[in-house]
Please model this.
Amino acid sequence: MRVGDLVKFEYVNNHTQYINGKIGLYLGPRPLKREDGQIINNFAVLFLGDKHPTLCDGSMMRWLHVHRGDTEATVKRVES
Model:
């Protein structure tokens, strides 16, 4: 997966309904360094229709896949 790829979250669980099945633009890793020196591996996705990126825990990458569907139809639905 590369920065700029169109990605889609599979079903994660019932607590993540706001991202289950959503499509967005992968913005890349966003590591967070805590005061104690611990680095938290995160990444960011800008979901279609959102104005601000969503920060996700690195462990959620296993549910994120490059979307190879009909992207043109998907973008048209979001824009209308």
About this structure: Residues 71-79 form the longest helix (9 residues).
